[in-house]
Amino acid sequence: MRLTRFDTSQIGMALAVLLVLTSGSRTAAQEPGPYQQIAAGNQLFEEGRFDEALAAFESAAAELGDSPELDYNRAAAHYKLDQFADAAELFDRASLSPNPDLSRRARFNWGNCDYAQVLEALQSPEAQAGQPPDLNQALEGLQSAITHYRDALDVEGNRPTDAVGDRSARENIERAQKLIELIKEQQEQQQQQQQQQDQDQQNQDQQDQQQNENQQRQQDQQEQKQQDEQQQSQQNEQQEEEQQQTQPQQEQKDQQGQEREMTPQEVEAVLQAVRDKEKERREQKAALIRAQRVPVSKDW
């Protein structure tokens, strides 16, 4: 995502508001007072030495206490050091100034702080490395920036109708709104990608489940086949054992059956023996009959 740069031209515009010299009670040889520190801080700020400028402003604030003008200067230094959260807090305090010009610029730059924090998050090393930033938080930051820009436009006070600050505020509102649209488009793309990833994952899970079921079914079939083969093998072995046990008995029965069965010759011999015996019986009977018929000699 290409990010739009934003206008920071209002930063530092109120840095001279506290250039007030102290009374003549101090000499040049004496330790510089808070106003001298403010003047030094302004000079350091103009030279781009923002950390030293901030130190000078902090020293002045420690002696003078809270001041919207000094809060603004401190906030400007924090902003230049990319310490946007600290800058936003001080711009918030400076926006309460009764000076409309100072309040307007503080609100404008407060919006710049929100905008800058959004860009910082979107362009962070984590985001560059592919870790998506919190887009909802970015949207909240941009909406907050727009609110502050509009508040700057709403501050009452005499100023030209084409004041640079007002024009910059309107331009930054447009930039923030365009960035909001880009982020929402990015969110829609992410949502679609996430939905597609979820669908792909669901399809993959279903494929994995189907594959696992097929593998389990094949495994069950293979195990059942092995069990059937093993059972059949056991039955075959049992049948062989039974056959081995019954074979001698069958052979004995066969032998007995063979002893009871006679060949035709043997049958004929038996019949002949019966006939011979019957013939012998008839002959004996006939002989007995003849013996009874022989006349008895009379001795007379």
The N- and C-terminal alpha carbons lie at a distance of 177 Å
Largest sheet: none
Mean pLDDT: 81
Question: Could you tell me the number of beta strands?
Answer: 0
* H/E element sequence: HHHHHHHHH
C-alpha-based Rg, rounded: 62 Å
**Beta-strand proportion:** under 5%
| Shape designation | rod-shaped
- Count of DSSP-assigned helices: 9
Q: Kindly state the percentage of residues in helix.
A: over 70%
Structural class: mainly alpha
Stretches where pLDDT is under 50 for at least 5 consecutive residues are 1-29, 296-300
Describe this structure in words.
It is built from nine helices and no strands. With 300 residues, it is mostly helical. Helix 3 runs antiparallel to helix 4 and helix 4 (84-94) runs antiparallel to helix 5 (100-122). The chain is rod-shaped and about 195 Å long.
Which characteristics define this entry?
disordered N terminus; 300 residues; disordered C terminus; 75% helix; rod-shaped; mainly alpha; single chain
